[in-house]
Every structure is written in structure tokens, then in C-alpha cells.
Design a protein that fits this description.
This protein has 757 residues and is an alpha+beta fold. The chain contains 16 helices and 44 strands.
Length: 757
């Protein structure tokens, strides 16, 4: 069966795009500042060897409202906004991004879909208690009276919801809905029983809104309708997922029947059954359809049965979760989105043209959400650079292999401009001159200087006075407990910690927060690896007394207690100390209450210092010193520092850190109420603790902890794997302490030697 050419539709929205992209405006907001940039869209060019390859160029038009539903027709943009018990409809000219006309649908609680026909008429579908109704707006903006529509054979249905509307070249309307319907089925005993199940049903109506017929697909046995749309030749069809993959099923309007299903090529990974749920914004094109997946835009071609990636939405500052409308006409793509949680809608035009920005690459083993968000924002607002993410983990999903590939590229000089170094042993590479000292850039940049960082944390993350990586946020790692147990001490040795516990009649298992054996060892090594490895010289010493004490502590700690909620064990003094994270003032408040208001931070066992460490939150990034444009890479790293803090943990910039402490002390109430807003909450089955506005004393206590940070918490996966492997025999009683330390020393020493060569 040959699948015919398709039109343009988005989740039941059909639009005919005939206008090009014109001049637009973009409003950006950074740290309270607003600027407006006027940009002209780049038209498609033929290109030549001298001009370089064509790429997608974007223009952004601010619509100045946050719409709930949007589409385009002819040269107009239609935006629908629910407000004041009705729906406001704005008609905006594409060329000017200005409102040409505004209408209201009074007493309309919401719209379930919108569509445009080839003549530029727009249809709005209302699902209300009084029934299904249709509104029509003519090309000149005249709003016609609403008309009620009957959905036959739905009287006995339950949970009926409208999902969209479409219109074909004949003027036929297609109302797509979902409902639960009953069906009589035979039981094992031979009797009949009524069974309810969901169906996706499409009603086909003529220009007078008379129902010609309806057809449905039963959502049973793993079947799920992903979309319904209409092709450019007027053929309506479902896109359906089942346990085998994805298929197309057309509606034969003349025969009033469903055609035979046509399977899409599962070689396109997107259409595997376990991946199809992540398909978004399926939108017909002339010979296939667009779709979004994993924040990338693809086009599937019916003729070739192949899906090709068009572009990464992140590269253009777009998130698929924000998209209201997506369409393609020729080599032009149009998007209407709601940018950010509180931002207004935008009209975005993507057109092929000569590259206008310099491209930077960012290498990462696996992209986290905050880094992805920051890349998108940087790409949207930077006038000179665009960052493209290179993810090394790949489709196989092997993190360790991805980390090794990234590290190899760094060593061989093939790595991207900016490097996400979290999860790789980058410290073994920094001393070889492969990573740039970020302080060199800060000394020549008034917008982001060394003094603007939270200095104790930055100092803890330095290597011989150089800073090779940074992140916009950090967490505190420490040990705390009853004030009469810690005795006001800050920083103790393993021997001193043992004496403190013995004075309470306790052993190491009176410390909560460790997981037992290997996780204890991993935690302590991540805190104090700098004690054992000289990164500059490429040497190590794991045969000293301090490392042996760590091994002994990890073996002794079983994590086995009396059981029950932690709060109860603390109250009974079965637990007198805890280790863990402080990620906000509210964490400090909760721990303080757990310990009866008398809490002291003693820190992890150390040879010297306070024992409180800081670890970067999320992806720490560095700059490839061997690339041609390190200044461009710094522009992104600087943006990441200044704008990448997402409210989790503590910010790395001192001004933002001070603001977080001030916010922690502000009284807040829940919206439309007098109850206090809880900034933190803890429940372990034995107690419920709410953290509200902090006192100045509590905020100062957290600031004091940060001031006492002297070491970094940082994982070194390759070295840690060696330590964990060799420690297994010691934990099992199959090897003694001395021999275990020697084996670790030999293996890590060889690794460092090979890396430094």
C-alpha cells in the first residue's frame, strides 16, 4: 500500500502556511535586565563552497501574551487565552507580530482544538457541560455564531473528552475524541458480561455539520492512538502505537471504513514500541510527518521509510515541552511556544541560510537537565556563539565506556571546546595542560571575576591555585550530631572520633547515613582523594596510616542498627551522629530539630582541617585548552556560572548565595491563604518536621559551614573502581590490611604513570 502525500496538522490542528517569516522582535531577560533585538529571518540560499554549508537560522517574535492554544492560517497567527471565565482570541499579523483584532468567547471554559481550512477560516472546538460546540472565524476576523454538534452513539459512553479537530479540502470536519464504551464479551463459563474499555473515535461531518459516519480504534491490548491528522491530499489517518511498534491507519471517507494498517519501519529507532511513548507534536508534511523526541526534531518520509534528524531543538533554545504549534512549509519550519515557566508565547521561524554564529561544541558523557536548559538559553540569547552538545554515552547507554571515549578524545586533542568533566578522572589530565585555568579568563572579565565566587568553595576546588572546572551550584558534605557529643569540635581524626563514640558507649554504627562496606569507602575516598594522589606529579601513596584507617573504618561499619525510624533512633540515642548532605538552610533546620535543637557539625575524620567538604552540583565544566577559540568557550562557561543556578543546593556566585540566605529567612504563605509556606519537609514514619522561615542564627550557621569548607567532594571513577575491587577481599577476610593497601598502591600508581606519559 502506498501512503499518499500528507498535509500539515498538530494534534488535530490543521493549518495552511503560505506566508514567509518576516522581521521579528526578541525580548531577553538576564539578571533583571531587558533588551530587545530586531532580527530578519534568513531566507533559503543555494550556498556554495565559498559560503560554506547551509544551516538552520532562527528568528524569534515575542507575542506579548502567554497563550493556551495557537495556530497559524494564511498570514495570521491565532492565539487563544483563557481568562475571566471566557476565551480571548487574538489575531496577529505574522509580518509585524502585532494584534490585528481581538475577540472574546464569553462563558467558554476551554477549547479542545482548533483548525484552519484552505480558505483561511478558523474553527474552534468547545467541550462544555452544555455539549460540544463549534465556533468559526472568517479570514477577515468576523466571528460567527457558535453551533452545537451532536456526537452520535455517545450517550452511554463515559469519560468522553475531545482531543482535537481537523478540516479537509472539501470542508469536511473531523472531530477527534476519546471515550470509554461498553462491550458485551463472553466469559470463560460461556455467559456474557459487560466490559468497558477506551476508544479513540473520529466523527466525520459535512459542511452543514451533519455526521456522515464515525470510525474508531479500540485502545486495548497495548494499542494507543498517538495522533489523528489529514494529509495534503485530504486523506485522514491515525498514527497508532501497539506492542509491535507504530503504524498508519487511513480512513476511507468514500467507503466509510478504516483501511488496512501500514507499519512504519522499525529500523527508525523512534518507532520501537518502548520508545513510541516519547513521540511529541506529530505534524504532517508533504510526504511524511515531523515529530519531536528527546528534544530533537525529526522528519519521517513515507517513500523511504526513514526518519532523519532535522535539528536539535536545544541548539535553538527551544524545548519540545513548551511547543504549542509546529508546522513545515517547504524548507521553512514554524513554531509557537511558551518559553519558560512564566514567559510569553513566541513565534519562531527556522529557515535555511548561511551560518551567522560561531559553533562551539560541548562534550558530556550524559547531559543533565540543567546543563541542557542552560545550553538552550545560551543559544537563544548569545549573538556570537551557538553551542552544540556532543553526548558520548550514545544509544548503548554505557556510562563508563562513554567516559573513557571522552577522556581519550581529550588526550588526543579531538575533544569539544567545552567539557563536562563530571564522571571522568579529569584531574589526571589537567596537569598535562589539556584544560585551561578558568582564573585566566576571570582576570580579564569584569562580569565574572574570582572575587564574585563563593571563595571558600572555589579555593577547595583549586589545584595549585588553578581552577580547572566549575558548576553554578554546590552542596555541603559533613558529619553532625548532638552538641554534647561533638563538644564544639570541628575536624577530628579517626582516633579522636573513636574516643568520642566510646565515651558515649557507642561504636561506628551509631553514625547514620552510611550504607555499609563499599559505599562507606567510596564516600570517604571521594572526600579525601587529594590526600593520597599528587595530581601534578602523577604519583600516589595509599600505604599511609590515614588510608588504612579509612579501610578499617569501612570494614567495621555494618550499617546494622536496632531498626525503626531514624528520628526514633536519634531520640533514643541509638544514633548520635549523622553524615550526609546540606543542600539548603531548610536541611540545617530539619537536622537541628531531629537532634533536639542542640546540633554540632564535627565534619568527617581528617588529618587536619574541619572535615566539611563542598561538591559541585550537577555538571562541572571546563575548557579545552587545545582549541582555537577558548574565549568563545569561556563565554558559555561564564553564562553557565551567572545563569545556570536552578534553585537546587547553593549557588556558586556570592551575590546569589547571599540572596538565597535572605530568601530563606523570609516569611511566606501559601497562595490565597494564611498558612505558612513550608520551605522544607521531613517524614520518616516517626516524625514530621516542617521547615519554615529561618532565623538569622540558622542562616548564619549555614554561612559559617560554607566558610569552613576546605576540601572538595569529587568522584574519581577509574581510581575508585580499583580501590573497591581490591578492598573486597579485605572486607571478606581473605586479605590483610597491609597487602590490600599495597595492591591499591601498585595499580593506581601504574594508572597514573600511564596517564602522565
Amino acid at each position: 500500500m502506498k501512503i499518499s502525500r500528507r498535509g500539515i496538522a498538530v494534534a488535530g490542528i490543521l493549518a495552511c502556511i503560505i506566508a514567509g517569516c518576516g522581521k521579528t522582535e526578541k525580548q531577553e531577560t538576564h539578571a533583571g535586565q531587558k533588551t530587545v533585538e530586531t532580527a530578519k529571518a534568513v531566507e533559503s540560499q543555494s550556498g556554495s563552497a565559498g559560503e560554506g554549508a547551509l544551516s538552520w537560522q532562527a528568528s524569534y517574535g515575542l507575542l506579548e501574551e502567554r497563550y493556551d492554544l495557537a495556530l497559524t492560517a494564511e498570514d495570521m497567527i491565532y492565539g487563544c487565552l483563557f481568562e475571566d471565565g471566557g476565551v480571548r482570541i487574538d489575531r496577529l499579523k505574522k509580518e509585524e507580530i502585532s494584534a490585528a483584532k481581538t475577540d472574546r468567547l464569553p462563558e467558554v471554559s476551554g477549547l479542545s482544538g482548533a483548525a484552519a481550512d484552505s480558505g483561511g477560516n478558523v474553527y474552534l472546538l468547545e467541550d462544555a457541560e452544555k455539549g460540544t460546540r463549534l465556533w468559526k472565524m472568517t479570514p477577515d476576523g468576523a466571528l460567527m455564531d457558535d453551533v452545537g454538534m451532536e456526537l452520535e452513539d455517545s450517550e452511554e459512553a463515559d469519560d468522553l473528552s475531545l482531543k482535537g479537530i481537523a478540516v479537509d479540502q472539501r470542508g469536511y470536519l473531523y472531530v477527534w475524541c476519546e471515550m470509554m464504551v461498553p462491550e458485551m464479551m463472553k466469559t470463560e463459563g460461556g455467559s456474557e458480561a459487560e466490559v468497558w474499555h477506551f476508544v479513540d473515535r473520529v466523527y466525520v461531518k459535512d459542511e452543514q455539520l451533519n455526521s456522515l459516519f464515525y470510525r474508531q480504534i479500540d485502545d486495548v491490548g497495548g494499542v494507543q492512538v498517538l495522533n489523528f491528522q489529514i494529509g495534503t491530499d485530504g486523506t485522514p489517518f491515525f498514527i497508532v502505537k501497539d506492542r509491535e511498534g507504530v503504524y498508519i491507519q487511513e480512513i476511507d471517507v468514500a467507503g466509510e471504513t478504516l483501511m488496512e494498517e501500514v507499519r512504519l519501519n522499525k529500523a527508525a529507532d523512534s518507532f520501537e514500541a518502548d520508545r513510541a511513548d516519547s513521540l511529541e507534536h506529530l505534524t504532517s508534511t508533504d510526504n511524511g510527518f515531523l515529530y519531536c523526541q528527546d528534544n530533537e526534531l525529526f522528519e519521517f518520509c513515507f517513500d523511504t521509510q526513514k526518519a532523519e534528524k532535522i535539528l536539535s531543538l536545544t541548539t535553538y533554545g527551544i524545548f519540545s515541552s513548551d511547543i504549542l504549534y509546529l508546522a513545515k512549509q517547504g524548507d521553512r519550519i514554524e513554531i509557537i511556544d511558551n518559553h519558560g515557566e512564566d514567559g510569553d508565547s513566541e513565534f519562531i521561524c527556522l529557515a535555511l541560510g548561511a551560518e551567522q554564529k560561531k559553533t562551539l561544541t560541548l562534550g558530556t558523557v550524559m547531559t543533565d537537565q540543567n546543563l541542557n536548559q542552560t545550553v538552550a538559553e545560551f543559544n537563544r540569547y548569545s549573538r556570537e556563539y551557538r553551542v552544540e552538545i556532543v553526548e558520548y554515552m550514545g544509544e548503548e547507554g554505557d556510562y563508563e565506556d562513554g567516559a573513557e571515549r571522552l577522556k581519550l578524545d581529550i588526550i588526543t586533542g579531538n575533544a569539544p571546546d567545552v567539557l563536562s568533566v563530571s564522571g571522568i578522572d579529569y584531574r589526571m589530565l589537567s596537569e598535562k595542560g589539556l584544560l585551561a585555568d578558568l582564573y585566566d579568563f576571570m582576570r580579564n572579565d569584569t562580569e565574572c571575576t574570582e572575587d564574585m565566587l563563593v571563595r571558600p568553595v572555589a579555593g577547595a576546588c583549586e589545584d595549585e591555585g588553578r581552577l580547572y572546572s566549575v558548576a553554578p551550584g554546590f552542596l555541603l558534605h559533613s558529619m553532625w550530631g548532638y552538641g554534647d557529643v561533638t563538644g564544639g569540635q570541628s575536624g577530628v581524626s579517626f582516633l579522636e572520633l573513636s574516643r568520642i563514640l566510646e565515651s558515649c558507649g557507642k561504636d561506628v554504627n551509631a553514625i547514620a547515613g552510611f550504607s555499609g562496606d563499599e559505599p562507606v569507602l567510596t564516600r570517604l575516598c571521594a572526600l579525601f582523594m587529594d590526600e593520597f594522589v599528587d595530581w601534578e606529579a602523577g604519583t600516589c601513596d595509599f600505604t599511609g596510616e590515614y588510608f588504612k584507617q579509612i579501610l578499617s573504618f569501612a570494614k567495621e561499619y555494618t550499617g546494622i542498627g536496632a531498626g525503626g525510624p531514624l528520628s526514633e533512633r536519634i531520640r533514643k540515642r541509638e544514633v548520635v551522629l549523622s553524615v550526609g548532605l546540606i543542600s539548603g538552610v531548610e536541611d540545617y533546620q530539619i537536622q537541628k530539630e531531629l537532634y533536639g535543637g542542640d546540633i554540632g557539625f564535627i565534619g568527617y575524620p581528617v588529618t587536619e582541617g574541619t572535615g566539611t567538604a563542598a561538591g559541585f552540583l550537577g555538571s562541572a565544566v571546563g575548557i579545552n585548552a587545545k582549541k582555537e577559540d577558548p574565549a568563545g568557550a569561556w563565554e558559555f562557561v561564564k553564562y553557565y556560572l551567572l545563569h545556570g543556578y536552578d534553585g537546587q543546593g547553593f549557588p556558586m556566585m556570592q551575590e546569589q548565595f547571599d540572596r538565597v540566605l535572605e530568601e530563606a529567612m523570609k516569611e511566606e504563605t501559601v497562595p490565597d491563604g494564611e498558612e505558612p509556606f513550608h520551605k522544607g519537609y521531613y517524614n520518616d514514619g516517626g516524625v514530621s518536621i516542617f521547615a519554615n522561615a529561618a532565623t538569622r542564627e540558622e542562616a548564619d550557621a549555614v554561612a559559617g559551614l560554607v566558610e569552613r569548607v576546605e576540601v572538595r567532594y569529587e568522584m574519581h571513577p577509574v581510581i575508585q573502581n580499583i580501590i573497591n575491587e581490591e578492598a573486597e577481599a579485605y572486607f571478606a577476610g581473605q586479605a590483610d590490611l597491609e597487602r590490600t593497601a599495597e595492591k591499591i598502591q601498585n595499580r593506581v600508581g601504574l594508572l597514573l604513570q600511564e596517564t602522565m606519559e
